[in-house]
Structures are given as structure tokens and as C-alpha cells.
Amino acid sequence: QVQLVESGGGLVQAGGSLTLSCAASGRTLSDYATGWFRQAPGKGRIFVAVIKRWSSGSSSTNYADFVKGRFTISRDNAKNTVYLQMNSLKPEDTAVYYCAAGTIATMDGGTYTYWGQGTQVTVSS
Questions:
Q1: Contact 116, 22 (CB under 8 A)
Q2: Residue 107 pLDDT > 90
């Protein structure tokens, strides 16, 4: 069982930056693929980014096209935490952001087993 807690959301002006954290307890987060998803008001949940640690120790990442070049996903194994650094934020990035952990690094939220409660990100124009 993995418990995930997101933090770092808030209100920021367009063009600004935020860093979201996803802290895990119960299991080692690096044993899982960890993804970030978001859900805007009245819309479905969509994939943002994922990081996967391979048995070699290296990690791979994947991003939704609309965040490439602006968002960076990373992990701190010592803190059992995954981060989402968000730069050049736009009003359309406004959403509740969720982190999720699963065995497969996919863009399909249905393949992730564990979810956090979400953190609100609001970008003002």
C-alpha cells in the first residue's frame, strides 16, 4: 500500500512558476512509475507527466505535449518524493493536480493503483 500526499499548489500569475511535491509513505516510490495528472473544472482528468525508474537505476520521463519545455518531473529517492516543476504557467494550466503510482508508466490514469488527494493550482491572467 502506498499513500501519496501532494503539496505545493497555490495561486500564481501567468508566466510564474510552482513546484508540486508528491510525498509517499508505506512503500518506496521509486519502485513505481509515478505520474502527474490534472483535472480542470468541468473536464476530465488528463495526463501531464510520468517518471519511471528502471532496474539499472536510470530513469525515463514522458510529458504531455502541452507541457513539454515548461514542466519537469523529477524524484528525490532519499525523500521518497516526486516533484513537478512548472514554469511559464498559463491560465489554462489551472486545475487540480494529482500524483499517482503504478507499475506501468503510461498516460492512462486507469493503469495507476495509488492516488493522492490532489492540490489546486490556479493561474491568473
A1: yes
A2: yes
